[in-house]
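Let us practice reading a record.
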Amino acid sequence: MLPPEASVPGASVESQLAGTLAAREIAAYRVSRAAGWDVVPETLPIISAAGPGMIQRFLDIPSDADPEHAPVDLYSPEQMPRDVIGVIALDTEDGETMVLGHRASARIRTIALLDAVINNSDRKGGHVLRSSDGTVWAIDHGLAFHTDPKVRSVLWGFADEPLDDVELAALRALRAGCATGSLRRELAALLAAEELDAFRERIDSLLDAGTFPPPHGGFPLPWPLF
């Protein structure tokens, strides 16, 4: 088990982490937790021999995971499973066409919404993991919370789909937490003031639109894809 946050040695570890990749990893976990999504493994601040940083709960990922149930993968157009949403067709060096796709599960949909909220610019296929108990998790959120729109993701299959009542309620909870709740204090210790303002604005934009955002201008995919 990870140590409780109260036992992390040193005073105000977050203040020493502010602006770092580790701070963004912790912030992503706290947003996921505050929204009730719980798609990011527990991530806590810590001071180690190397200095301040973060520690994340270990995920047991089977080495012989069944590729038939991969959260994100490349598929031949003729063999795409029914529960996979295609994102983009790609031509390989051998001249073969493959489709980048992801599962249409509620859990992956939640990860896509988290990415929109935190402005994740590095949602690679390898950052969506299925643990040994079948649970899908999202990891690697160091490149998030930028003030400029720059979501780069392999999970664009939900673009422009309406947000359901549960998703809208989670966004409203995040907005309330940013206004007066503990989430505001937690994120303020980790992010710059302008990053926190942009975070709140993204939540408001999602609520106003009522849909998953479409890809913005520029290159909307991470590289490499996995």
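A brief commentary: Residues 1-10 have pLDDT under 50 and may be disordered.
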